[in-house]
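User: Here's a protein and a ligand (S-adenosylmethionine). What would the complex look like?
Assistant: Let me lay out the input and then the predicted complex.
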Amino acid sequence: MTNPRFGAGDSGPGEESPGPQSFRRPVRRPIAFPGKARSAPASPAPGSPAAAAPASPASGSPSAESALSDAGDARTTDGSEPPAEIAEVAASVFGDRFGLAVDYARLLVTDGVVRGLIGPREAPRIWERHLVNCAVVSQMIPIGASVVDVGSGAGLPGIVLAVARPDLRITLVEPLARRTAFLSEAVTALGLEPTVTVVRGRAEDVVDGPPAGADVVTARAVAPLDRLAGWCLPLARVSGRLLALKGASAAEEAAEHREAVAALGGSEPVLRLCGEGLIDPPTTVLEVVVLTRPRPSTRAAGPGRDTAARAGKRAPGRGRPRRG
Ligand SMILES: C[S@@+](CC[C@H](N)C(=O)[O-])C[C@H]1O[C@@H](n2cnc3c(N)ncnc32)[C@H](O)[C@@H]1O
């Protein structure tokens, strides 16, 4: 979970986090594939530990292995179901929300590709590189947390987390209308309205709006860490965390931007590895804790844009919450 080069830090998944053990082992549980029975949006009360608890193995249902094998007969060729080599991990990570994850995968590889939100070459690897890769970050998010996903694009990782973790309250922040339209449609189609809100706007412009004060801010492939910290740290509460999903050069990025992050009130970035033992390579996350709220002059001098929101103005039509 923690790269030894960077140490465990004080802010890793604690007792309140579901942790890696929350990933359901692929044992005796039903898997609802579309075309058979679609899984209903799960209904455990948001915030209840049960919402993120491992699926009960006592269902008397077929094993995952046989369910996967049965499902093979019904698999479509649109790429929405996971390839065999990752099917068990996907079933394990999404648990009883697996059917919903398949539904989301289908949206991505059909509408998402047609509408230019997902490259056609991503479709065959949508599970490995996108859904599972994002879902494993769930192990760093405490039960019942409020999460803001900055630069959601087609919903990565925000919608994936909402699918995997119905206990979370998630706000998707995305400036582009075409993308927020897709996000809103996906949220409705997947029945995620109770827990997911779509906000159109730039992160730096919505800082005084509903997303602010989050327990966790996530971002994947949005900006270098210094700029990201400038946008995201103001959206988290003090002691809240930025989880920046990064690639292979995460360690170098952490070293390069640590001073800029500190000037923004953030902790030393700590490199975390999520999904070790499940996926190879695991997902690399830079974790930054909000230590202090910088004075406005410090924030304005930071690498983020000097925004209308910081000046007390909001760009027309921006930063307004849109339910589903
Ligand atoms: C490369 S895409 C990544 C999308 C998604 N996170 C993923 O991993 O597939 C970057 C996204 O960040 C959004 N973005 C860029 N600047 C932003 C800002 N200041 N605030 C919020 N989102 C931003 C873009 O509109 C785009 O959807």
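Summary: Residues 98-114 form the longest helix (17 residues).
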